[in-house]
Amino acid sequence: MRLLLISDTHLPARARELPPQVWAEVAAADVVVHAGDWVDVALLDELEERSKRLIGVYGNNDGPALRARLPEIARVELDGVRLAVIHETGAKQGREQRCDAQFPDTDVLVFGHSHIPWDTVAPSGLRLLNPGSPTDRRRQPYCTYQTCRIENGALTGVELHQLPRRG
């Protein structure tokens, strides 16, 4: 099972559209995970239409229309892997311990908010992943997203992808 992880798209505020490379990943993915800050419901509609399966949550910049359709926290089991998605996890100091306490029955936690890619493992074995943003690099050198696979009940092949800088 191939997963695409994205967050903090901020459309159309930070970009007019998702980059073509990300849409190609949407087409290739079995599951698309969006960790919030969509900003416009149009992207949710388009991802629902173009994804085989979409798992998403709302973020702090998402208004009533998105909050009406998306949860604050999503929890699913994908081929034996317990996945949770939330937009914000707080400061980076102590993140692993906080998330261990908040998500005790979770194997992988996907989050966003900071626009800073993150890939660590908490003391319990919980894998924490932040794909960054494919449209707003903020103070990062590149816009980013992540892909990974679930094989035989385990998360494998987590990869951070950098997008070409726009003009």
From TrEMBL:
Its cofactor is a divalent metal cation. SUPFAM superfamilies: Metallo-dependent phosphatases. It holds the Pfam family Metallophos_2. Keywords: Metal-binding. Coiled coil: none annotated. The keyword Metal-binding applies. GO terms for molecular function: hydrolase activity; metal ion binding. Its EC number is 3.1.4.-. Transmembrane segments: none annotated. It is an enzyme of class 3 (hydrolase). Residues 1-152 form the Calcineurin-like phosphoesterase domain. Belongs to the metallophosphoesterase superfamily. YfcE family. This is Phosphoesterase. It comes from Amycolatopsis mediterranei (strain S699). The lineage of its organism: Bacteria, Bacillati, Actinomycetota, Actinomycetes, Pseudonocardiales.
